[in-house]
Amino acid sequence: MIPKDLYYKECKNPDDAIEWGMQNISPEIRRRFQNAERIGDSQSMADFSYRIEPFVGDGWLCIGDAHRFLDPIFSYGVSFAMKEGIRAADAIKQAIDGNDWKTPFYAYRDWSNGGQQIAADLIRYFWIYPIFFGYQMQNPDLRDEVIRLLGGCCFDCEGWKAPTIFRNAIEEYDRKQMAG
Ligand SMILES: Cc1cc2nc3c(=O)[nH]c(=O)nc-3n(C[C@H](O)[C@H](O)[C@H](O)COP(=O)(O)OP(=O)(O)OC[C@H]3O[C@@H](n4cnc5c(N)ncnc54)[C@H](O)[C@@H]3O)c2cc1C
Questions:
Q1: pLDDT per position as a tens digit, 31-89
Q2: Which residue has the least CA distance to atom 15 on ligand 1?
Q3: Residue range of the domain that includes 138
Q4: Do 69 and 146 fall into the same domain?
Q5: CA quadruple 72, 73, 77, 83: dihedral positive or negative?
Q6: Is the Cα dihedral 92, 97, 100, 102 positive or negative?
Q7: Does residue 180 belong to any structural domain of this protein?
Q8: Ligand 1 pocket: which residues have CB below 6 Å?
Q9: Where is average pLDDT lowest: 57-61, 126-130, 171-175?
């Protein structure tokens, strides 16, 4: 996985990208691949993240990959699927007990969107500012929060500083991009 700008600057095609990555990102992989035989052309994917909207409705809701997929590198998939599954089970029970799907399902939707957004912000911040992300990890005020966020604690982190820092930095970045 390499940033788009870097791809266009350093590589003419996906084969180049693999060569460049082995040379500059992971020489160890180059060593392991030295006797490997290429059996096909390399292929690139611009974006594999997706989300389903709406993901709750009358008598149904989506969890895990059926709802949203963020990023394979950060490995949130199993953790988020389980967290959403647990929360969805509660919402379903409340819907049956209260004979009303909207209140519990919309609460599940909002809770899920909140946590997924915090994870999406962290991932985007990392790819925009990889060096600064490493620097933030040295900050004792943020280190523990960032470790927990990387571990999947994105849904119940009210009052944490790191998510706000990431969100503000992304909004500022987007503003600058829009301005030219
Ligand atoms: C190559 C690869 C590596 C990954 N590595 C990681 C990792 O290291 N860490 C991590 O957290 N995540 C990883 N993920 C992502 C993770 O596997 C998914 O995010 C996670 O499994 C999603 O769980 P899920 O329950 O939503 O979906 P799934 O695990 O896909 O479960 C859906 C299940 O529904 C079944 N099913 C589908 N249609 C029907 C039907 N009509 N009737 C009955 N059953 C049906 C399927 O057979 C499947 O068993 C990886 C994914 C891939 C593809």
A1: 898 899 989 888 888 778 899 999 999 999 999 999 999 988 888 999 999 999 999 99
A2: 77
A3: 50-175
A4: yes
A5: negative
A6: negative
A7: no
A8: 64-66, 75, 77-79, 81
A9: 126-130
